[in-house]
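Can you give me the bound-state structure? Components:
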Amino acid sequence: MPVVEVSNVVKSYADKVAVSDLSFSVAQGEVFGLIGPNGAGKTTTIRMMMDIIKPDSGEVTILGEKLTEASKNRLGYLPEERGLYKDLRVIDSIVYLASLKGMDRHSAEVRADCLLNQTGMLSHKGKKIEELSRGMGQIVQFIVTIIHDPELVVLDEPFSGLDPVNTELLKGIFVDLRNQGKAVILSTHQMNQVEELCDRVLMIDNGRSVLQGSLAEIKSRYRSNSVIVDADGDLGEIPGVSRKRAHKGYLELTLEQDTTPKQVLERLVDSGVVINRFEVATPSLNEIFLKVVGKNHE
Amino acid sequence: MNKMLLVFKHEFRNTIRRKGFIVLTILPPLLVLLGIGAYNVVSGITRPPAEVTEIGYVDEAGGFDQFLDQGNISLVPFDTTEAATEALVSQEIKEYFVIPSDFIATGVIRRYTTQRELNPPAATAAAIEDFISSNLLAGKVPEATVTRIEAPLNLVTTTLTESGAVAPEQGGYTNLVIPIVFGALLAASLMFSSGYLLQGLGAEKENRLMEVLLSSVSPRQLVTGKVLGIGTAGLMQVAIWVAVAPLLLNLASSSIGGFFSAMQISPNLLGLAVVYFILGYLVFAVLSTGVAAVSSSVREAQTLASIFTLWTIAPFWLLSLIMEFPYSPAWVVLSIFPFSSPVMVILRLGLTGVPAWQLGTSIAVLVLCIFGGLVLSSKLLRTYVLMYGKRPTFGEVIRNLRRG
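Here's the bound-state model for the whole set.
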């Protein structure tokens, strides 16, 4: 049973279609990347999943049912637009928001201590939120998102505005969640993080799905038939190579349709050239993103 | 625990911990207590001493030799002004006065004292007046008549109802003071309570907390919990004032007396103060919810909400007119208009009374406003609470409300 099942969902505002006939599912234990340019409809999609706004048509089921007050307690949501009560103490903020997720005060306090300790924030638990730095505030928000041990965690731009140290800290917790078999939905612009953390991605643009699948499968789909070579001296004419492009420190060789990278490697070795690096060129997710989204905006 | 109750508990606890709330709750009774204390201290210092004060007099007119004891003032006759001056300088007497030979024709009494003062002390003037009139009338009219001439009348008015029975509310300034005080406290409590709600919702929107909250609770649970939590704190504040007011009035009446002993707090006023607080608060609460939903910041929300909340204190701007023309139909309109009715009704209760049909109409209008406002505010909340940045124009809001 998928943890999230979104079927043919449509949502329009006044004169704009925010989400159009969108369908996808997320399985238990999967880290799912939701990517797309600004205004693509990612946040609207997430808000419909969280039952904060209602879709005009289509259906959303979470953990096998339509979201209810009880099943909201099994979700953890870190929205992109997030904040805390400025004049409340860190521990009081965490305990109150955890209580709204069905936790009793004692369990919330024990678990808050544990997570604050894990993130190096324990000494700040008695401080007011307004006394914390922005990064510290984000860590507290992250703690609020996962304190009740949710089965599905939805993170909308979780690393934005964080310094590298705090980013690594949260990534560590993120990996823990994945290892615990939680379903995680990560919505972000940062493609390197999606490549690093996600199993499957859904790219949306103008409210529509433009790309969906496992990361490996998508990369393979967008792979150009070329190799990257860093070698000493001139390579000369190589049979089966239609084009050579020089980059800083390496050459990109575009292969003819019936030529394989293995054949090119053998030919280079046979020619006696000293090869320092040889790899099959795979496009980064960023390049695929630009290619797909760029095409839609042409 | 029900999530609405969790929000309720959180809001109630946070409100009663606010410095502003604590000060507003405690300050009015404390000020009254301080006032009573200050009166006792000041009157204790200036109160005429219990021992008898001796005042001299020189009777040049003749015949003023009786009634020398006037309460705590004892009158000492002197034959000449020189002898009286000597006694004054040597502090045997506090002061003296001369009844000139032409007193009957002129009415002039010459008074001599070593103290600089604006006016003769009231007790001294009264003692001299009574001494003069008692001596003038002695043997000419009965003693009871003398007393009546000295204090001719005590006007006691009784207001009757249309059926001729004694009205429960007797009116007058003494009975206006309590409603004015209660009206002011009610206005303050309404403005503060709805202000807290506005500030809370506005801050949750401004701080971007709303979406976190809405992923755990429904908008209905959130708003109901907040409205009831803050409202209960406000009601507790009013209840404290209602409970303390009769005690303070008793204290003022027993220690100060006079004006205060004539004051009464009618149970009707106390009951209606509570009813109008609840209804008035709910009207402003649903309005505050709508205003907070469409505003982009707390400050903007407060500015917008003041359009409605200023009506709460409008009856005080008009107070002198209300006292001068108490039966103007304008006050009936303000007693029914939902934003001004809570305070207006309380003020009018002390002045002229409010007919039952007006009370009924104003309560019905308030209840209708609460339900109508609830429907509109919920729509605004759902539509605008997660829209940040520019505030929608009035036209956009109306279009969205129509679209539902």
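A couple of observations. Chain B touches chain A through 24 residues (CB under 8 Å). The first helix of chain B runs from residue 3 to 16.
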